[in-house]
């Protein structure tokens, strides 16, 4: 079973730029995944807020961890890839930013369908970043593609 500890070890080994930027998974369940990152000197932009790429790494991990979790549960060989992404920034990201994706059911259905049919599937997953005051600072959408390997 995928846990936040295992996801964070994965980022250290396979996504070191996310690890060093401070991206950490906090919770994962069947429905959602929460990832946090703290604004600090290392991940800031020239405007003294969090660099957009750091936000993108955290947002993508909140969606991708759900994809990995359901692939593992399917017990099938399934490839995963981000085909497209979109982002909207609404406020300067400072302090601790929490990214949450609540699209676990959507990716589970796509993985179940690709395992059953062998046909590739796509699903859009959203992650919302909020600051410590609960104010949304950014919103990301990722189009994930999943396909059963032959």
TrEMBL record:
Pfam families: DUF4442. It comes from Nonlabens mediterrranea. This is DUF4442 domain-containing protein. SUPFAM superfamilies: Thioesterase/thiol ester dehydrase-isomerase.
């Amino acid at each position: 079973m995928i846990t936040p500890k295992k996801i964070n070890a994965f980022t250290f080994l396979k996504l070191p730029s996310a690890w060093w930027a401070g991206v950490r998974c906090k919770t994962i369940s069947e429905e959602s995944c929460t990832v946090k990152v703290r604004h600090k000197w290392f991940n800031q932009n020239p405007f003294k807020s969090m660099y957009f790429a750091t936000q993108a790494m955290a947002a993508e991990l909140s969606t991708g961890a759900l994809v990995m979790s359901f692939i593992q549960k399917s017990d099938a060989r399934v490839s995963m890839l981000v085909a497209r992404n979109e982002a909207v920034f609404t406020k300067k990201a400072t302090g601790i930013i929490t990214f949450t994706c609540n699209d676990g059911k959507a990716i589970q259905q796509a993985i179940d369908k690709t395992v059953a049919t062998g046909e590739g599937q796509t699903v859009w997953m959203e992650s919302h970043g909020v600051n410590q005051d609960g104010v949304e600072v950014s919103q990301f959408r990722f189009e994930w593609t999943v396909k059963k390997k032959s």
